[in-house]
Amino acid sequence: MIPFKNVFTEYAIIRGKRFTKKDKINFLAVLKKDFDSFGYPVEVVRKEEKMLGERLNYHNLYAGDLEKAQTVFVTYYDTPILEFNKGKYAPFTVKKPQFLSAFLPTLLLSLLFLMGFYFLLYPHVKDAGLFSVSGGLTFVVFFLWFLLLQRVHLGVPRRENFVRNTSSVLALRHFAALHQGDSRYAFAFVDAGTTNRVGEKMLQQVLKKKTKIVCLDAVIATPETYLFTDQKVTPVENVIIRPKKDLPAWGDILITSGEEQAGKVLVDCNMKVFDLSEMEQRLDDLSDILERIG
Predict the structure, then answer these.
(1) In CATH, which of 3.40.50.2300, 3.40.630.10, 1.10.150.20, 3.40.50.300 is domain 4-94+158-293?
(2) pTM of the shown model
(3) Average pLDDT over residues 6-32
């Protein structure tokens, strides 16, 4: 078995940002390789949608037989944009990005380039004309401006994503490694969990029969684990069971962590990563929980 330190480095550091299409494809290649080695058949499916004239591609990865499995474990793998306000995150919810987070980078970048052009290049272009060294430099600058806008027009990607949602990805990978090739289980890693949940809708369309759906989100934020379900679950130490109506999201069992405030579970996504050996023990504990409910 691969040492956990190496797994953590690959998933949380090297592939810790999964925002662009390239980020996601590279990450899914690593995930596919691991689940192949665990003895689960793997399928990556793609869906294309248009938004504001732009083509967006969404990718889901399914491991195991979704039709025959007794339990399908689900989590999203994409990572969110950087939020300038540091409010806490409510698991299994998608909130629209605030103006500062979504549009301020584009506005600042545009203002910076326009000011630079007006004060540094425009006087020279005005004297020498467009067909000059200054004119050529202007075309280069605006081309670079366009490329940068393409990278930030959807927001600046967040870099530290262990809590949301690398922790859940690692939890399912850890469980699969302990139950290699077990036909009772299937796994779905869905796209757009931080935005419009297209990946979740794609999964719902392929599930043909009534299957137990267990969804994970931000599962290692605190020592306490929260289960939201109406199904009968054997009590486990450090596991707090709440009725499903307290967290109305898709799935038969929802698993998360965090602190309860005013009747809601909230997660601090800025939590720093703790000791790796402690983290691996937490993953072992989560695997025990998943086995009990699966």
Answers:
(1) 3.40.630.10
(2) 0.85
(3) 95
